Amino acid sequence: MRPDPVADIERLRRSRNAVILAHCYQPPEIQDLADFVGDSLGLSRTASETECEVIVFCGVRFMAETAHILSPDKIVLQPRTDADCSLADCMGVGELSAMKEKHPDALPVCYVNSSVEVKAESYACCTSANALKVVDSVPSSEVVFGPDRNLGTYVSRHTDKTVHVFRGACEPHSTADLADLDRKIEEWPEAEVMVHPETPPDFWDRADAVTGTGGMVEWVEASRAERFLVGTEKGMVYRLQTLFPERSFREAGGILCRDMKLIDLEHVASSLGDLEPRIEIDEALRKKARESVERMVELT
Ligand code: 13P
User: Fold this and answer.
1) Looking at the structure, do residues 203 and 186 belong to the same domain, yes or no?
2) C-beta 66 within 6 A of ligand 1
3) Residue 66 — φ and ψ, nearest 5°?
4) Residues 178 and 157 in one domain
5) Rounded-to-integer distance, Cα 256 and Cα 86, Å
6) Ligand 1 centre distance from Cα of residue 37 (Å)
7) Which of 136, 145, 245, 276 could form a disulfide with 152 if both were Cys (CB 3.0 to 4.6 A apart)?
């Protein structure tokens, strides 16, 4: 155990010319020390634009992989390689190929919560922040969408295109507790309700805003309300409270992603010290996946 991991991180971050990126579901102490905290889209953009030699990615595997896909010349460290995403693991290339064969006129769009292999076999990638825009922008009237069925269904309800949705789901979001949301709506009847599109449709019916984590920040910024119920992973409440200390937030639905909570300060310090564990991707695969990730960045 290090006596003061934060001091070690500060020293190493400078000597390694490193930036620390954190998703807004990360634990408070990780969010507090990160150079940038954001949603999947903001993190992808920051990873591709930042001038540094090392990126320490505090999030789950697909996020660190996306950073490496976009920034192959930088060392991308993921302090806990076992921090994975149940959703990304839902759909393999075989399943995507089967959907492509069944719908030969459809272009495949994959949610960024997917494997590098699935990204490489997709026309374009998207995040919750831009899924509808990406689907609307691809040059086909039919789209194969995966792995998340809830986000895919949400998009299909808001586009004129035909969307063939894969059956996958984020375990914590798709099993969120609707009774908990209803109870909190009763307790805070004046609160605005924001829910992530990875939650099931019953959540959307009760919400003022169905949007990703970046969209929630924008929603609060534009709103005059004082209280908000937050239907996404619990870490988001800390993010919102940090950004808007004068408003009140409560998580709703009991959504907890254990993988997002695996990284602690000690892991960040050791990772910066050892420059391990690094994200490594086969170069041909990385280049193919990059096309679909770049198309997302271009389209939005
Ligand atoms: P956002 O893109 O809204 O940050 O969501 C990421 C995620 O993994 C949701 O489960």
Assistant:
1) yes
2) no
3) -60, -40
4) no
5) 12
6) 12
7) 145
Domain that holds residue 36: 5-85+260-280
How far does residue 281's CA lie from ligand 1's centre (Å)? Answer: 22
Q: Evaluate: CB of 127 within 6 angstroms of ligand 1.
A: yes
Which of 289, 294, 255, 248 is closest to 120 using CA atoms? 289
- How many other CB atoms are found less than 10 A from the CB of residue 205? 10
**Ligand 1 atom 8 nearest Cα:** 113
| pLDDT surpassing 90 at residue 154 | yes
In this structure, are 80 and 9 located in the same domain? yes
* Nearest atom within ligand 1 for CA of residue 233: 10
Residues 30 and 78 in one domain: yes
Q: Is 39 in the pocket of ligand 1 (CB under 6 A)?
A: yes
Identity (one letter) of the amino acid at 91?
M
Atom 3, ligand 1: residue with shortest CA distance: 212
Cα–Cα distance, 136 to 123 (Å, whole number): 13
Give the chain's domain count: 3
Atom of ligand 1 nearest to the CA of 212: 3
Residues 101 and 165 in one domain: yes
Is residue 286 in a domain? no
Same domain, 97 and 77: no
CB atoms within 10 A of CB 145: 28
Under DSSP, the state recorded for 81 is T
pLDDT tens per residue, range 246-292: 999 999 999 999 999 999 999 999 999 999 999 999 999 999 999 99
Q: Which tops the pLDDT comparison, 210 or 299?
A: 210
Q: Ligand 1 centre and the CA of 68: distance in Å?
A: 18
Q: The pTM is what?
A: 0.96
Which residue's CA is the closest to the ligand 1 atom numbered 2?
A: 40
Residue 113, domain CATH: 3.40.50.10800
Would you state the pLDDT for residue 196?
A: 98
Position 297 pLDDT exceeds 90: no
